[in-house]
Each structure stands twice: as structure tokens, then as C-alpha cells.
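G., the chain you wanted modeled:
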Amino acid sequence: MSVPLITVRVARKTQEAVDIFTFELVSTDGIQLPAFSAGSHIDVHLPNGLIRQYSLCNDSAENHRYVIGVLKDSSTRGGSKTMHDVVKEGDILHISLPKNHFPLTHGARRSLLIAGGIGVTPILCMAERLSIAGAEFAMHYCSRSKERMAFYGRIKDSAFTDKVKFHFDDGALQQKLDMQALLGTPLTETHLYVCGPKGFMDAVLNTARAAGWPEDQLHYEFFSAEVVRSDSDGSFEVKLARSEKVVLVPKDMTVIEALAAVGVYIPTSCEQGVCGTCLTRVLEGIPDHRDVYLTAEEQVKNDQFTPCCSRSKSPMLILDI
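Predicted structure as C-alpha cells:
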């Protein structure tokens, strides 16, 4: 089944900070773009064939443009380097409809927003939406240095600047984020939202969980993850329920790779268990979940998994394919 795509033009490419560019995308035919909500992202189909997810960081009330922020990652697998070095103003790109796996909770009494580095992109959109709605919130934004902090001026000049605290790794000790002081006591009716590098997010979430924050008050979105591989990984089989074809998945291959080798293709994007593009229904068997896309509650149901990185605890998985 083909996925509908939107054709857009890069109207503006702007350097926001060291190694960070923003890209303003507009419709090529002048019509309004589909609506989106704070926390949404789009899949961007790059000229080199890769697909990457980027959060929308402009006001969600805007329908004439999408704005994304892209960090040039030193460990890039080709996505951010292409965006920085190849994509230029005037170029035509294809993108997905906006998706939101990181939405604001309606009716929350208070929101606590925590951003690390480029993870500010969805967090900024949330802050602007909460400010417009007159909702109670606070925002903490951490960066290695002021020179690497995207949107610093935009936030300082915003209507909600008094609700934001900036934290710099190279700054004085007293201005650094004290996670224990901030999260050491669970706050009733406060919803926590965090986005940033995995290590940063793990630290925030582990601190909150250790303090007893309820899981339903914790909201997060990973944009990268380390694919877990183990010397103990073994082979297993997957059975495709619709054709009854059985495919062996060797220990050194992913399910995606094994299926592709026999002509069965599942759409993929991040290949790290982050985006959910390849999410596949499991009819029988016990997946070995290695993704960061599904919640713990979703993983324990064992009725779906991410074949780009997850494996199997049982000798066979029967998939709804």
C-alpha cells in the first residue's frame, strides 16, 4: 500500500546554531499544508534515498509552512549530512503527512518541558502552544554551549521567556540542570515531557521513575537509539500468515534483512526501533523487543514488534503479513 506524500519546496535554509540548520518547507502548489499538533514530526525523503524523521518546530496554528531543525550528527548515517551539505533553498522534497506520537496531554493541570540539544524542536512547539492556550508550564533547555543552542533568541524574545531556564554544560555550576532537585519529588497533576539525546533522556526518566513519578505522567520521544546486538543472539523463523511462507532469520541478520532476501519488503526508516515505520503485527510467538518506540505496556502485550531491530524469544514468530 502506497503512503501519500506531500511535495514541498525548501523556501528557506537558515543556520540557527553551530551544526544546526532549520529548513522552512512550503507547498509547491501554494495550497495550505495539512494541520498538525504540537509534538508532531514528518518523514523527509532525502535525495540519497534515505528517509528521516524531523519534529516540526513552528507554531502548530500555521498552515502555510512546516519548519524543521536538523543537527549535523557526528555519527550520522547519511541523513543529517545530506540535509546540511546537499539540500539547499529551492530544492523539492517529498514528505509524509504529519504524525504525532508525542502529543500534549489535554487537560493537564501543569506541564514540565525538558529539552536536551536538538530535542528542543518538539518541546519548543509545545511551549508555544501552551503559552497561547494560557496553560501553566515551565521549560528547561540544556545545551553544550550557548553557541550550540538553537532558537535561543526566539525563546528570549517570546511571550513565555519567563517560564524558561537555560542550562549550559560549559557554564557555571549553579546554572546547570539539577535533575534531583527538579524531579526528586513527584508533582501531582504535572505531566513531564522530555526529548533529547538518549543518555540525557535516560537520566531524566530514570531520575523521575526513581522518585516515584507515575508512568502515565511521563512523556518522551527518542530520535535515535543504539541497536542492541548480543553474542547470544540465535537464529529463529518467521512465518508469514497470509502466504504461510516460513523464513529463517540468521543470528547476523535482522528480520527486515531476512525478509528482503526472499523478496518481502516492509517499509523502514530509522532502522533503530525509534520511528515505528516498520511496526508489524505479531499473531503468535514472543518477540524480543529492542525498540524505544513501543511503551513498556505495549511491549508486554507481544502483539506487535519492530522487525528492523527486534528479534524473537520463541523459535518462531507468526506475522500478519
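The first strand starts at residue 5 and ends at 17.

Shout if anything looks off.
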